């Protein structure tokens, strides 16, 4: 009774549908045409048109006149499309559902229709059951159906409005509806979803008084609620009550119990639930195994979890569900337990299981980080021998590792295998391999891949040539880099910023600074604007050659051209000035760096502080060190402290040196406790 006083005008009693409803129904029936005409109408039906009609004042008459006949042939799929079209306006979705429901229960109870309506009400809701909405529906000769009420209640639960759902529930008689098990289930599920488990229990206890018998859905909703709260023993009691009522728990019941026990830290009990589930003849699903394996790892830690789960799997030889193995493999790989993962792979192989490409890739990614490369290659070879086909990413991972070990023969072997497996299916796939080889200084082999690429009918693109130019430039082989540039232009490509920067870098590596600067000046003729990386290559090269003034000129030109310098633009000149013992110029450049809003990095600070200490300008070094400590992004290392301590000691400032020593010890102790 209290609910009626809280919302006295929520659902005012309205007159029963009048003669108008009969007229509308008759008009709907008369609108049906012959089968041929209806088929034509169905073909011309447009969901957007239906949605536009729903927004009009006389929406019911308009949509009924145009879409009543086609709807019989379009079916629920058309309603779903229209609901998705109207998702931004949830009230229009309610109107559409009310209208479509008049054409049969297969519209009102269609799972896809209800899901589309529920998603719209949740994402753009809430839609409250106001007196105006009820009047509008009843004025069209329709009613607030049980199905619509359940969808509304579900949306309120997802939006955290469980209290409002209960307020509407107690006033159902004013809608000329009586409570049913389906409505009770909707209210209970909404309460659980909103975290109001006590309210869900209240409705559950009221069900017998209204002649409603709880079903499997009812109990599952409550089990889900108490498991979320960590009250797993109550969940077990509910399951026993459920079985006592003659209702058989299903896979959802057991999966929620497994997850609940794991979250409560009772992993052994979770395993027991799964065993009981199998004994009862309920087949676990992938979700069940995921809940168990992830939950046990989360609850017990990696080592103990693996021991328990592997022992459990070995004790159930009749269990041939690969999902348990796959989930366990995933957890082992993600926790870098490569040895255990490989051991499990062998056990699966002995049982006749062959890993899929995706799962094998996950295992190999872990193994490559933790195991010997030769052993990883054996795993790959064995997988191929048994009929498996490693994915492109697996081959790239193995090839990168082999290149770092200079094992070129195996690289060629796996490249041939990739070709035979048809993994080179695009220019991008070829470019990825060319990039790996070029970065590992095997540019000639990369060039051979380009030849294979062309013979296979794939034309190299600008990325292909830029990768080769970059590779040759890093090796200092400017002659071959220029040859690739010539080939690039012969094929109609225009050099871009990456092309020029790579060439300039190669010329700088071979100390051809004049040619590098000429190449830099030529960029504008090709319509290519230098970027900060281009300038940094030249600045670093001039500093290395001892021509710091030229580097400073480039830095000034860079700023005049509107290109923002970065920390690398300043670091090279600062280091050069410090080496030349021109500390004032280095400090001046450091100040300019701060003025331009460029944040120094640890390299900048370390270089300048050490140079100041070497010149026994300790106070300035201390000032910069304090500035470094105030930066939350950079942590001073102990070598910098020792530089300052040494400089203080040399100048006879022993007490200050002691203070710095104590500060360093406290800092190290803090870092040790944090670790």
From TrEMBL:
Q: Which organism is it from?
A: Urochloa decumbens
Gene3D superfamilies cross-referenced by the UniProt entry: Tetratricopeptide repeat domain
**What InterPro entries does this protein's entry cite?**
PPR-containing_protein, PPR_rpt, PROP1-like_PPR_dom, TPR-like_helical_dom_sf
Q: Which residues form the PROP1-like PPR domain?
A: 183-313
What UniProt keywords apply to this chain's record, in alphabetical order? Repeat, Transit peptide
Top-level taxonomic group: Eukaryota
* PPR repeat boundaries on the chain: 180-214, 215-249, 250-284, 426-460, 461-495, 496-530, 531-565, 566-600, 601-635
Q: What is this protein called?
A: PROP1-like PPR domain-containing protein
Q: Does the keyword Transit peptide apply?
A: yes
Family of the protein in this entry: Belongs to the PPR family. P subfamily.
What NCBIfam families does this protein's entry cite? PPR (TIGR00756)
């Amino acid at each position: 009774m209290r609910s009626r006083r809280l919302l006295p005008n929520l659902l005012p009693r309205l007159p029963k549908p009048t003669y108008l409803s009969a007229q509308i129904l008759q008009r709907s029936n008369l609108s049906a045409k012959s089968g041929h005409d209806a088929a034509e109408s169905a073909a011309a039906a447009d969901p957007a048109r239906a949605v536009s009609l729903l927004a009009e004042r006389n929406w019911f008459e308009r949509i009924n006149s145009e879409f009543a006949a086609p709807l019989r042939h379009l079916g629920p799929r058309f309603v779903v499309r229209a609901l998705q079209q109207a998702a931004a306006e949830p009230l229009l979705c309610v109107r559409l559902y009310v209208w479509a429901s008049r054409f049969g229960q297969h519209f009102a109870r269609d799972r896809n229709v209800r899901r589309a309506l529920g998603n719209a009400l949740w994402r753009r809701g809430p839609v409250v059951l106001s007196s105006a909405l009820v009047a509008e529906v009843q004025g069209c000769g329709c009613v607030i159906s049980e199905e619509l009420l359940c969808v509304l209640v579900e949306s309120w639960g997802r939006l955290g409005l469980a209290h409002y759902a209960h307020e509407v529930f107690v006033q159902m008689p004013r809608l000329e509806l009586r409570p049913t098990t389906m409505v009770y289930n909707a209210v209970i599920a909404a309460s659980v979803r909103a975290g109001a488990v006590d309210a869900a229990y209240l409705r559950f206890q009221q069900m017998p008084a209204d002649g409603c018998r709880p079903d499997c859905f009812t109990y599952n909703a409550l089990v889900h609620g108490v498991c979320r709260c960590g009250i797993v023993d109550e969940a077990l009691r509910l399951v026993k009550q459920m079985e006592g009522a003659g209702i058989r728990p299903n896979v959802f019941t057991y999966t929620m119990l497994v997850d609940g026990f794991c979250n409560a830290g009772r992993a052994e009990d979770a395993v027991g639930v799964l065993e009981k589930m199998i004994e009862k003849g309920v087949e676990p699903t992938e979700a069940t195994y995921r809940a168990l394996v992830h939950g046990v790892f989360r609850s017990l830690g990696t080592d103990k979890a693996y021991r328990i789960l592997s022992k459990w799997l070995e004790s159930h030889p009749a269990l041939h569900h690969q999902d348990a193995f796959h989930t366990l493999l995933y957890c082992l790989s993600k926790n870098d337990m490569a040895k255990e993962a490989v051991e499990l792979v062998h056990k699966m192989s002995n049982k006749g299981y062959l890993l899929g490409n995706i799962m094998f890739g996950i295992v190999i990614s872990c193994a490559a980080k933790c195991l010997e490369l030769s052993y990883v290659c054996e795993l790959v070879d064995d997988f191929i021998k048994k009929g498996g086909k490693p994915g492109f990413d697996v081959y790239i991972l193995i090839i990168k590792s082999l290149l770092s070990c200079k094992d070129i023969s195996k690289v060629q072997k796996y490249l041939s295998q990739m070709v035979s497996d048809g993994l080179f299916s695009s220019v991008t796939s070829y470019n990825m391999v060319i990039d790996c080889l070029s970065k590992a200084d095997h540019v000639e082999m990369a060039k051979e891949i380009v030849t294979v690429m062309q013979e296979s009918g794939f034309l190299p693109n600008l990325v292909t040539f830029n990768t080769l130019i970059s590779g040759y430039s890093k090796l200092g082989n400017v002659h071959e880099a220029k040859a690739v540039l010539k080939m690039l232009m012969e094929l109609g490509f225009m050099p871009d910023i990456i092309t020029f920067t790579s060439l300039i870098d190669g010329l700088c590596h071979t100390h051809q600074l004049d040619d590098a600067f000429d190449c830099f000046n030529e960029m504008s003729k090709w319509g290519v604007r230098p970027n900060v990386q281009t300038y940094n290559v030249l600045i670093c090269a001039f500093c290395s050659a001892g021509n710091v003034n030229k580097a400073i000129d480039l830095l000034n030109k860079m700023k005049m051209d509107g290109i923002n310098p970065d920390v690398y633009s300043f670091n090279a000149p600062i280091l050069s000035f410090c080496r030349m013992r021109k500390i004032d110029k280095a400090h001046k450049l450091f100040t300019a760096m701060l003025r331009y809003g460029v944040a120094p990095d640890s390299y900048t600070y370390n270089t300048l502080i050490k140079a100041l200490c070497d010149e026994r300008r300790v106070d300035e070094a201390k000032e910069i060190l304090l500035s470094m400590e105030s930066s939350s992004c950079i942590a001073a290392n102990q070598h910098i402290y020792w530089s300052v301590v040494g400089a203080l000691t040399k100048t006879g400032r022993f007490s200050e040196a002691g203070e710095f020593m104590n500060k360093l010890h406290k800092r190290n102790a803090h870092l040790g406790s944090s670790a």
